[in-house]
């Protein structure tokens, strides 16, 4: 679930903070997600 929030934030949609007991994605996991989504995130950013 945290990855969905992080992906929304990366694409400019922002979903706020996940509710407890979930926490934000760690920086290393966020970097891994960004590299996995790479071009998709960039395309979405320019489309919005």
Average predicted local confidence, pLDDT: 83
Q: Helix and strand string, N-terminal first?
A: HH
Number of helices: 2
Strand content: under 5%
Whole-angstrom Rg: 11 Å
The biggest sheet amounts to:
none
Number of strands: 0
What percent of the residues sit in helical stretches (DSSP H or I)? Answer: 55-70%
Class by alpha and beta content: mainly alpha
For the record, give the distance between the C-alpha atoms at the N and C termini, rounded to a whole number. 23 Å
In short:
Helix content is 62%, strand content 0%.
Question: How would you describe what is shown here?
Answer:
The chain is mostly helical. The protein has one domain. Helix content is 62%, strand content 0%. The longest helix has 21 residues, at 27-47.
Strand and helix map with partners:
Blueprint: H1 2-10, H2 27-47
Attribute tags:
48 residues, mainly alpha
